[in-house]
Amino acid sequence: MFPQKEAISWNIDQVGYADLDGKAGFKMAIHRVGERWYLYSALLWEPGFVILDITDPHKHRYIKHVPGPADTMTFQIQIADGKMITAMEAIPNFLGGHEGPWEHEGFAIWDLEDPENPQQLGVFKTGGSGTHRNYYDGGQYVYATGLPEGFDGHILQIVDISDPANPTEISRWWREGQWLAGGEGGVSAGTLLHGGAYVKGDRAYLPYSAGGFVILDISDKRAPKLVSDLPFSPPFEHYIAVHTALPLQNRPLVIVNSEAILENGAGSLGYAGIVDVSEEEKPRLISLFPLPEPPPGAPYKNFVERGARFGPHNQHQWQYQDVLLNDESICFLTYFNAGLRVYDISDERLPKEIAYFLPPDPTDRRGPWPTTGLIAQTEDVLVDSRGYIFISDKNQGLYILRLSETRTPRPA
């Protein structure tokens, strides 16, 4: 492994770095109160979240760590309407967890009236091992990616939180075969809702991993119905063949991507691409994003050779929040050892890379992955409405970035 000691970027400027008191950040959310801006980051290797004041991203302020329940993964945070939804999921055995039942599972609901001291209002329990990545854009409903008892893989649970102290599941949807307790026969490995669902009007767009890209009719939230689906495996990476499905608001398009799982290129090809849903009963893949190329002078000819995971992971998602960037001509996508990649998607038939940022490799280990050494692994990305970009890493804190005001041609 050739250590990368400094950040390498093209058309992206680094604004700052938040070490998070030696913790590794993961999924993020932003909240604004008056003139003050706050970023909340879930943690990757321990339960809980941290709070930063990002009113001036050049001089951010670390506020506190809010611990989560022991033996629980709290990977994701969603914020809307002054409420925060934090996922709680049982730690699997291979990461040091235990067999169920689990006391702390589902998701917690918080009030952010005092943004520096969130107050927990209630907890929804799945009746199983909890939730992974949920969707909440405000209002009455949380679209949870849950794993209730008796199911083979995560499913969609729609939860009414109008009374936060007593959240109530009103419906659920799953792929045929998942309900083992109901006599269904099981599904192929990796057929599960990775989440989160993304709601647009009376449709929910579901990234169902090996189960493909799914469109649901949720005009009756108590009885979701399948509209259509689009398989992605084979030929693409099987286990999380569809990790994210992000519908655009003003174009009948959905940006989809897989998640790289295995290290050192051991799995099938990962991808990011664009699906045309103008005929929603017949969704079709119309383009693929170009694969990231190593920067000039890199000691590896492709990113697989760099080691650890290479492939797409998370997209920036607007989710109707005025504190977040809404620009449907640009896609921000994390790519593990290839850092953050930014694409111009104004022509849906020809996505083009316009910027990238490769963080330096970590200098200390904060978690067990990657197993191949301390190689930077960019996890999540969030962009605020001011244009500041925040990315997290498996063994580092958060990098604060911004697209360069003056763009240059790709370096040769």
TrEMBL record:
InterPro entries recorded: Haem_d1_sf, LVIVD
A Pfam family reported for this protein in Swiss-Prot or TrEMBL: LVIVD
UniProt name for this protein: LVIVD repeat-containing protein
Species in which this protein is naturally found: Rhizorhabdus dicambivorans
